[in-house]
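User: Hi! I'm working on a homework problem where we have to compare a predicted structure to a textbook description. Could you give me the structure for the chain below?
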Amino acid sequence: MRHEQKSALLVAYDAYFPDIATKESLVERLRVAGRGECELDDRLVMLVWSAILW
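Assistant: Happy to help. Predicted structure tokens:
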């Protein structure tokens, strides 16, 4: 992943998810959703896929 792409991803992350302060809190949110305890927000899904595809 190029530096510009990393920066764009971090900006998007901060803009959409100001309540997720750390990578660990993002991972925990994904774990909770994976257990079916809550639904994943569409924006979160797109952000995760963007990170994977970059």
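For your comparison, note the following. Residues 3-16 form the longest helix (14 residues). The helical segments are 3-16, 23-34, 42-53. Good luck with the assignment!
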